[in-house]
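User: I'll paste a sequence; please echo it back and then give the predicted structure.

Assistant: Echoing your sequence first, then the prediction.
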Amino acid sequence: MVKVTCKSRHLKAIKIGEIEAKWSANGQRILRYSMDFWHTELGLHKQVSAPEIYLLEIKVGELLERWDKLTDEHHRKSRLAASKEACEAMTIEAGSRLAAISKILEWTLSRNDRVDWEKLKDRSSYQGQMAYQVPKPSRKPIPEPILFEPTMSFWDTIFGRRSRKREQALALHLEDMERWRKQTNESVIAHNTRVDEWRQAKEKFEAECRAKRDEFLAAQAAANTQIDQLAQDVRSGDPRAVIEHANLVLDASDYGGMFEKSYELDYQPTPAKILQIEYELPSIEAMPTVKTVRFSPSTGEMKETHLSEKEQKANFDSACYQICLRTLHELFEADEHGNLEAILFNGFSTSVNRATGKDTRSCIMSVLVRRADFEAIDLSRVDPKACFKSLRGVSASSLAALAPIAPVMEMNKQDKRFIDAKEVIANIDTATNLAAMDWSDFEHLIRELFEREFASRGGEVKITQSSSDGGVDAVAFDPDPITGGKIVIQAKRYTRTVGVSAVRDLFGTMQHEGASRGILISTADYGPDAHQFASGKPISLFSGPHLLHLLQKHGYNAKIDLQAARKELSLRTN
């Protein structure tokens, strides 16, 4: 019997199976032709037989046509089932995204927001290779020749040839021994040479490994020491350390990718101990709107059901009020040393002005909260909007209207006075990893670099009292009457891709400062949204390679190793 597996309509070859011989009742011999078919996908089996080949071909054709129809129907039902499953999965995902909005505040109430300084430290052991993997050369001994007694015949005895044969055998053996000694000696010398070379390579390799390990441990210890120093500075209330600590707290606040966090911080240590925040709230256009996804069998399309406009506005309002309360809670809870007596939260939203088609950024909510007032609230039981209003927060009746409001207090950016310059650029070399520099040194490096760039035109560059999180890091004054003016420079010592929010911040700072141009310098690359936002605006984006090229232009060489910087700065690698 010939077995044929049918998988598709394209099977056209017909092969004759075994000829079966049967006998009729009257004793006549009858011949029949048969074939077996298996459909592996549908799990079908059919034996087709006929007394004539042409009849067998007809039956096989009918069978394949019938099975093709069954296969098509099976595929159609499979596609429908897969599409329904995909829609169900997308509906579940959409529901999870909408549910996450209502849990923004709840997320922080179930965790400790204090900075665990020990977890920030790098306690990993050195993973580099230490042992030399090349095996020590070995020498295979050359077998020593064996003296074989010559074969003696009867005639050797008769004619006295026995002693001569022994002498010849012994002479040949002595020759073999001499060759063996020579070959063995040469082999030993060559082996010793290989062993010496192996030992030298092993010692060199292990010395390099120890040097790399010591370099790793030294860098690790230095980074951990910086963390200890930062913790000590926070305890002592150093303003820069307080701001850096607040950055760590807010960076650890996980919104599950709901929106891209962006904020600017400042701190007034005396007399009020106020931490000031300008927080970039999510845009209403970026909020999730899909409720369900359904599959239409008639058209084969997936159809989405969206929230109503009223529901979208309600979700936006809820998210913004929760973000405000969550931020306040995280910062107050993490402040173990009493550095914060009050927090100013000014929430900004950037959206498209439907009248002009341009991006518009405005403050839509503002609140100044004292610690004692905030700690008296049970956040697990409040209505976020009502709580915000009870804290004398200012906002329009609907945040979704994006109505600009006057903040209860302006973030005191004028306090960022120009500070004395510090020489940094002369100390860098090819071993300097710019992405791992102290952020203050990195800002001074950028100032010096652009001083050299603008020197030929009589320009001046001044660095500002930075808070390590953005704002105006440096201001260049270019006297050129055509291309010059006030230029805002921001330095971002980042180890991750720079998002669009950083470019938006720069553009907002330019407008606030009345600058003619903005320059954003980062040790990392920029995302496509960042480039798209900067397109057509007087903004220049300098990535890591651009920065290295500009340094080389002025006679300085350094490197940017983002992965090494993440380890050195005790940041998580994904």
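The mean pLDDT is 82. Residues 162-236 form the longest helix (75 residues).
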